[in-house]
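User: Can you model how acetyl coenzyme *A sits in this protein?
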Amino acid sequence: MGVGIIGIGTVVPPRVLTNYDLEKMVDTSDEWITIRTGIKERHIADSNVNPSDLGAEAALRALKMAKVEPEEVDLIIVTSASLEMIFPSMAAVIQNKIGAKNAGGFDLLSACTGFVSSLITGAQFIRSGDVRTVLVIGTEVLSRFVDWEDRNTCVLFGDGAGAVVLREVGDGYGLISWDLKLDGSGADLLAIPGGCAKNPCSEEVLKNKLHYIKMNGREVFKFSVRVLGETTEESLKKAGLTPADLDWLIPHQANIRIIEAGAERLGIPIDKVAINIHKYGNTSTASIPLALEELVLEGKIKDGDVLALVGFGAGLSWGSAVLRWKNIES
Ligand code: ACO
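Assistant: Here's the modeled complex, given as structure tokens:
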């Protein structure tokens, strides 16, 4: 059974934080951030806006495009690297906000790989025949987990959300193949170490800023370049395809240099790669839908195009999903 995307919606908070704004906050420059990351600006949520607010808005937009009522949703999968609370799940909070009164659901956590993992999971539920409509939401208010005094990390991240509605789309369309991998030996390379069971909230945690993102940028960079190519090739191989068959590479937007190096390794020309990191920074689980929606709204993706959605991040975790695109009827 072909299972694919029948609606997509995204949202970013209106407040923009530019590289020039950051120059006033830490010892950095627009030039350094632009050259090293490709980021020019990012959106930051106001203090009264939570990840579930952005996620609910993105979900309603996706449902509208899909012409699906909230009551028709069977399953909600929410993925995030900036949890609202440990429990209840954000799936439950968003279920209530959007009035999806017949839905079950859960949160699926896999840092920046979360959107790809959740899309694959949602598609399997539909393939099993047990459910008809799945809502997948990636939503982030990462700005709450950023140490705004740490120039190594605070220039990278932004807030936003993206959602897709999944349903049967016809034979030959939708999710064709996928690949998901973990390497927990790299768990310390990128983490929010404090505030949960291992390092519960304490004065020590706050003093050492363990409730903020800690990252070994160089190692994460090398890992990301390597796995972006590897997982894309693995998924394509499972589908009997090669990188030359790809119409669009839609990678997690972490750093323009990671994206360019990954595409080069695959031999994919840069005009076939979705790039919008300059506007949003790294929005973790929201970055792939934010990049995909832009291509869809600009009419750049044609019926039958082959897409590879590629995620990578903390865990370490990485993965890809290859889809044959079915045009969304307007
Ligand atoms: N402004 C100016 N200088 C800076 C800044 C900044 N914002 N940040 C770091 N520097 C300095 C460093 O201190 C260092 O100075 P030093 O040589 O005197 O020590 C110098 O710039 C070079 O630092 P590097 O770390 O080597 O810089 P690099 O070219 O590797 O770029 C970066 C750093 C952008 C963080 C890069 O390593 C990267 O993008 N890594 C991947 C990060 C990532 O994508 N993380 C998210 C993964 S997804 C998820 O799961 C959340």
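A couple of observations from the model: DSSP finds eleven helices and 13 strands in the chain. The chain has a mean pLDDT of 97.
User: Helpful, thanks.
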